[in-house]
Amino acid sequence: MFRTPRLSLTMEMMVLAVGVLSYVASATVPNVQVPAPRNLRVSSYNLEHVLQWDSPNTSTSWDGANTMTYSVKQLVFNEDALEDRWEELPHCAHVRVNQCQVTNTTYAVYDTHHFKVFAEIGNRTSFSVESFKFVPY
């Protein structure tokens, strides 16, 4: 009968420690914060409303600056629940430009409208930046 040689207890502990450290190292993903957009504003001309923002402050060497997208949410009053909720604007989701046409979502010209914008890189998202209240009329 063939028997494999038994490792010493010290050697077994070292092998176990290396295995655990390898697992922890492979499971650790650096938590890199995505910088948030800046200077959110709504411009209006002839009842055409455009939400605009500035890109985050980033260095040119910052990883991900070339793959950054933006998504916009609008605060909407939910009549069934009698509360407000943030809804994503599908035509302003994952866009690469620093603006979004919001005329069709602000058709109630006497209502107050609020927006917020997120910067995204892959599955990471920045903190949101909210607009001041906007009343089209």
Characterization of the model:
It comes from Ciona savignyi. Keywords: Signal. This is Fibronectin type-III domain-containing protein. It holds the Pfam family Tissue_fac. One of its GO terms (cellular component) is plasma membrane. This protein is of the alpha+beta class and 137 residues long. It has a domain of 93 residues: Immunoglobulin-like. Helices cover 14% and strands 33% of the residues. It is built from one helix and eight strands, in the order H-E-E-E-E-E-E-E-E. Strands 3, 4, 6, 7 and 8 form a five-stranded antiparallel sheet that branches. The protein has a three-stranded antiparallel sheet with strand order 1-2-5, with no helix packed on it. Strand 6 and strand 7 form a beta hairpin. It is globular and about 45 Å long. The termini are far apart. About 12% of the residues have low confidence.
Q: Could you write a compact summary of the structure shown?
A:
The protein is 14% helix and 33% strand. It contains one helix and eight strands.
Overall structural class, as computed from helix and strand content, comes to alpha+beta
Give the fraction of residues assigned to helices: 10-25%
Mean pLDDT: 77
Based on CA atoms alone, the radius of gyration comes out at 25 Å
Approximately how much beta-strand content do the residues carry?
25-35%
Q: Provide the CATH top-level class of the domain at 38-130.
A: Mainly Beta
Overall geometry comes to globular
Poorly predicted runs of 5 or more residues: 15-31
Q: State the distance separating the first and last CA atoms.
A: 92 Å
